[in-house]
Specification:
Length: about 120
């Protein structure tokens, strides 16, 4: 089975609609924090950083329309932890695009501790 891909936006990206100011994605930053707290998780994912401008890297190969980040792509289809969280991608690919679901997937798949309510 192909590796699980995690797409994150590169930090310090420009958004032409907002002048010369640089931005970061707060949802991607939260996932980066999770990866920093649990470094073994990063080693078991294919983490790909993409530019803010579209198309975002090779995402269109897996995701035709919504190139939001963070996003999990499952090239081989669902696994035991993605059922109920994923949506169809290109061909047999499944994807998880909601950042809370991305976090939930990583917690369940890798047996991480849960965020405190």
């Amino acid at each position: 089975m192909a590796s699980t891909i995690l797409y994150l936006l590169k930090s310090k990206f420009p958004d032409p609609q907002h002048g010369d100011q640089l931005f970061f994605c707060p949802q991607c930053a939260a996932i980066e924090g999770l990866l920093a707290m649990f470094p073994d998780v990063r080693q078991n994912l294919d983490v790909r950083y993409v530019n803010f401008s579209r198309p975002r890297g090779d995402m269109p190969e897996y995701v035709e329309d919504n190139q939001s980040c963070p996003q999990i792509v499952l090239p081989g289809g669902d696994d035991a932890h993605s059922a109920g969280l994923s949506e169809p991608g290109q061909s047999a690919t499944r994807r998880i695009e909601d950042h809370a679901d991305v976090q939930r997937y990583l917690i369940d798949k890798f047996g991480l501790s849960h965020p405190h309510p």
